[in-house]
Write a structure and sequence with these properties.
This protein is an alpha/beta fold and 322 residues long. It has a single domain (3-319), classed as TIM Barrel, CATH 3.20.20. It contains eleven helices and nine strands. α6 (199-212) packs antiparallel against α7. It binds iron/sulfur cluster. Iron/sulfur cluster binds at residues 34, 36-38, 41, 45-46, 77-79, 105, 133. One of its GO terms (molecular function) is 4 iron, 4 sulfur cluster binding. Residues 20-217 form the Radical SAM core domain. Its cofactor is [4Fe-4S] cluster. Pfam families: Radical_SAM (PF04055).
Length: 322
C-alpha cells in the first residue's frame, strides 16, 4: 500500500478514532552484529546473539509489513551497514510502501561508492554521533553529506555526563540544515555503569535548546514534556521492534514477549492474535511500567504535537531545509 495513504489511515485511526495500538513505526534490527560495543547498549544487539536473517528472510519480513499500518521502516541493528546486502535490502523496501530510514554509527560513511548509491534508497539517514560512539569529530564534516543528496538526522545519546555538550552539537547540525534527535541513555536492570541522565536536568537543557533551535532539534515538545512525567492520560503503542530473524517482541523489546514471526506471518495477522490482545490489556493495566514506551511515542500523543512534528518533517523532505 502507498505510504501516504497509509499515513492518512494511521492518522484517522490513532488521532481521530483514538486507537492506542496501531504501529506506524518499525525498528527493524536487520543484524545483531556491530563493530562497536557502546556502554549503554544491550549486548544482545551487538554480540550476534539475535542472529542475522538471510537476504531472503529479510525480504519476506519486508513483504509481510507492506500492507500493515507501518509507514516508517527504520533499518537498524547492531550496525546494519555490516551487512553486505544492505543496499539491496534498502532498495527492496524503498518501493513507495514506506518512508525508509537507515540508522548507522558511520561504519561505511567514508565509502564514497556506498554513499553515492545510498541517497535514492532511503528517505533519511540517522547518524548516531556522540562520545559513546567515539565519533563526535564527525560533526565537523557533517555538511559533506549534502553533496550526496542525503538528508541526515543526527541521533545523539544524552547521559548524565554530556548534557553540557549538547548545544555545541546542535549548532554544528544547524550549520548543515540537518536535524538532531536527542535520546536519553536507558539503564538496563543489569547495566554495570549507570548513564541515564536526570530527567529534570534533561528537560531543562532540551526545553532551552528547543526554544533557540526549534526546527533543528527534532525532539517535539510532547517528548520534552514527557521527561517531566507529564504523560498523556493514556498509554499508546505506535512503534514495534523486529528482530533479525523476524521475531516480534510485543509491545516492546524491553518488557515484551515474542508474539509471532514476520518472516512467516503478516503483521496484520499477528496483531489479531489473542496473545496480542491479552498483552495490550495488560499494558493498559500496568501503564506505569512502560515509561520507555510513553517516551518513545510522546511526540504523537496529541494532534498538536503530531502536527508540529509532521510539519517539520514534510518541510525538510520537500524543501531540504531544517
Ligand atoms: S553502535 Fe549501536 S548497536 Fe553498536 S554497540 Fe553502539 S549502540 Fe549498540
Amino acid at each position: 500500500m502507498n505510504r501516504d495513504i497509509k499515513a492518512v489511515r494511521w492518522f484517522i485511526k490513532t488521532q481521530l478514532l483514538k486507537d492506542p495500538f496501531n504501529p506506524g513505526y518499525a525498528t527493524f534490527k536487520v543484524t545483531s552484529r556491530c563493530n562497536l560495543r557502546c556502554t549503554f547498549c544491550n549486548p544482545s544487539y551487538y554480540n550476534g546473539e539475535l542472529g542475522e536473517g538471510s537476504t531472503e528472510t529479510i525480504k519476506k519480513i519486508i513483504d509481510n509489513l507492506r500492507d500493515s499500518p507501518v509507514v516508517v521502516l527504520s533499518f537498524e541493528g547492531g550496525e546494519p551497514t555490516t551487512r553486505k546486502d544492505i543496499l539491496e535490502l534498502l532498495q527492496y523496501a524503498h518501493d513507495g510502501s514506506f518512508y525508509v530510514m537507515l540508522t548507522t554509527n558511520g561504519y561505511r560513511l567514508n565509502d564514497d561508492d556506498f554513499l553515492s548509491k545510498l541517497a535514492d534508497k532511503i528517505d533519511f539517514l540517522h547518524y548516531s554521533i556522540d562520545e559513546y560512539h567515539w565519533n563526535v569529530k564527525s560533526l565537523d564534516t557533517l555538511c559533506k553529506f549534502r553533496q550526496y543528496g542525503l538528508k541526515v538526522n543526527v541521533q545523539t545519546v544524552a547521559t548524565r555526563y554530556n548534557l553540557h555538550k549538547l548545544e555545541d552539537k546542535v549548532k554544528k547540525v544547524r550549520e548543515c540544515n540537518y536535524k538532531i534527535l536527542v535520546l536519553p541513555a536507558v539503564d538496563y536492570p543489569d547495566s554495570k555503569v549507570k548513564l541515564a541522565p536526570d530527567p529534570n536536568e534533561l528537560y531543562n537543557v532540551l526545553s532551552e535548546l528547543k526554544k533557540k533551535y526549534t526546527s533543528t532539534l527534532n525532539n517535539s515538545w510532547g517528548f520534552i514534556r514527557a521527561l517531566k512525567g507529564e504523560f498523556p492520560n493514556r498509554l499508546v503503542s505506535y512503534a514495534i521492534s523486529i528482530y533479525p530473524n523476524g521475531d516480534l517482541p510485543y509491545p516492546d523489546d524491553m518488557n515484551g514477549e515474542i508474539v509471532g514471526n514476520l518472516s512467516q506471518e503478516k503483521l496484520n495477522d499477528i496483531l489479531k492474535k489473542p496473545k496480542v490482545k491479552e498483552l495490550q490489556r495488560k499494558m493498559l493495566e500496568n501503564q506505569a511500567k512502560f515509561e520507555y514506551l510513553h517516551l518513545q511515542t510522546a511526540s504523537f500523543n496529541s494532534v498538536r504535537d503530531l502536527a508540529e512534528y509532521v510539519n517539520e518533517m514534510v518541510k525538510w523532505r520537500f524543501l531540504g531545509r531544517a
